[in-house]
């Protein structure tokens, strides 16, 4: 990999640790970018200064062009057709004779050459490799760093061996030879932009006193006690002599310490040492996914004492939890599916497939990452999957998942292709990549699943080929062995989907379930399919709100219609298919609302969009209701995707800005840690289900109310219930009422006795609790109320009551059932939206002011069964 042997190893497995005596100097300023024809020489004689643009690093060529207004997200641009040059200059940092200066390059996409002062230091052909170069002897008083990113398109045209044993339409098959991200290069669902450039941090590290060459910390539970085992390899600098070392741990369980054994490394130089030790924490605070408890973390620090004073090493944070799969040790993945238990408690894992927060720059800020992960947490999600079509995530991402209690399903970056894993050079490259990845994430409490690949077994089976073609030694033996070497306790799954005679059957192992969704099966298929665990599911073209739609064409342009190329560019499709996922959504709009979507969008475009927003959200919530019930065989499901990559009606439940879509709101109620929902059991009536994922029992009040003509009460029942910690309960509506009412309108002896059923779970029977239930759900046995009424007849009303600066309470009420109520209040964000209002009752919604200049009365309310909008009235603050 390195042209010069004296540069030391370019690719390291060292985890990121913090040595107090080190200095980190980010090279994040003064960067420029220029495009050139492939193989332009280093002199760049054809590029004058006028062709260089300012560039962000970390960042990409796409980000630089977007910043210069030379390209917009969503526009066609082949970033792989040119060479891209990045350059910056910097002064040499001051250093002592024994200090080491290292150039650290955390990610170069994809085929790159690194030059320092005109000297070629490194060639890299993996986007996923992290490089460190000892450059102390090569620095001048003033230095120029130049990185050339070679055009990938010409390289893809070069014939290579071995030939693929199967082909996919996902992307150019030659990409299987390159370690790069498929998102951005997958026509149909992720056509661009391709990631090209220094997408991760570039910095100089001034290392003094010592260098941590390797560090491994692993935790386990021994009864109620926590056990931390730590080992490290250090190399001392400046003639440092260390005489002792101590391991310190500080967190919710208090401060604890234990001595570490310090010994000479048996296979190293005289200045290399091993540290080993164990620390036991009595009655340790456990780490839980946020839905089931508190994700308690503890800071780890190593202090070495030497003749020149102590040196402190920050070794990150750890969590103490027990992870198992199934209730017994001989759990059968194929027969029982992926059944995750944390600390002995079964966890219904629900969430989404993660997509890069900023597909353009690939360098989101920590604040942007936190905002997106908090959105997922607030939606009741407790697991995110990093797919094999994407890229390994940053240290900041995994730190936040640990902190926020989000479980992580980590794919290794292999998807759909027949990778040349028998080639020695390729095998060496991916082995180093996976070792490096495991060194980064193996000891994290949030890590739950490691998956060898995405859809490789499915790809082979669906082509009618021998399934053994997909089960190479790499995925069956070598990669699992690397996982074992890392002492990682996450389960290893060879591919998603996998298991069974045909790996894409949903009733065995791990599935990708698109029965409801892409395959347009009825909602009842969610139960019939017998899903055990869905690593992907429920792909819909989810319509965003108006502000995100406007980003499709930019300011001062007309609103895009549904056949506008800008609109269609944001709708995902399978490459080569003559349909897209808007057609899928239209199918469910017709099934749920008995309306012709083609005619509807022809005569009432805005109403079509609003009903489309509701259709995908309702379908998702209904499906999760089936899967989350105590009687279900399903142990978890992950929606495709969390966020859109680009503006438009993509798979995400968040739009490209990270703002919730209507589908997100429906999912958030279905996935909440404390939730109540109903299931139509046909001749069995309507079942009420409630879940309490929290670690404490819940005493609550369950209330069922039935209405005729969407207004007149025809039945009501209340009872006190106690939900066990981490428990479920279920009832039948007619059992609660004490009489038969044909709640599901399945027997149909006549017109429906009720056309609306509301079920609420409250903490007591006070007026406040009734207006703010823990959870509320509705069901419409005779069909959804989408016939529009005049707002005076519906009686929809909203009163905004200001609270301390930056927040408010919105009280909603209606005389009749208000279906799909939306809150339109620019500059404010509602804690809930897309709500069904029970007639004669008040719901309170918390509001957060995002724009300090936004007035509280510049908005209104709409409903799917109401003409137009009604204004929100504002009560003056007392």
Secondary-structure blueprint:
Elements: E1 18-19, E2 23-26, E3 32-36, E4 53-54, H1 61-67, E5 83-91, E6 100-105, E7 112-116, E8 119-124, E9 131-134, E10 142-149, H2 152-156, E11 202-207, E12 210-222, E13 225-236, E14 242-251, E15 254-264, E16 272-281, E17 298-306, E18 309-318, E19 323-325, H3 333-336, E20 340-342, E21 345-346, E22 349-353, H4 366-378, E23 383-386, H5 395-404, E24 407-411, H6 424-441, E25 447-451, H7 456-462, H8 473-485, E26 491-493, E27 511-513, H9 525-528, E28 534-537, H10 546-550, H11 565-569, H12 581-593, H13 597-603, H14 605-628, E29 636-639, H15 662-671, E30 674-680, E31 686-692, E32 698-708, E33 712-723, E34 727-732, H16 733-737, E35 756-762, H17 767-771, E36 775-779, H18 791-794, E37 797-802, E38 807-813, E39 818-824, E40 828-830, E41 835-837, E42 842-849, E43 860-862, E44 870-871, E45 873-874
Parallel strand pairs: 22-23, 22-29, 23-24, 24-25, 25-26, 27-28, 28-29, 37-45
Antiparallel strand pairs: 1-18, 2-11, 3-4, 3-5, 5-10, 6-9, 6-11, 7-8, 7-10, 12-13, 13-16, 14-15, 14-17, 15-16, 17-18, 19-20, 20-21, 30-31, 31-34, 32-33, 32-35, 35-36, 37-38, 38-42, 39-41, 39-43, 40-42, 43-44
Helix pairs in contact: 4-5, 6-8, 12-14, 13-14, 14-15
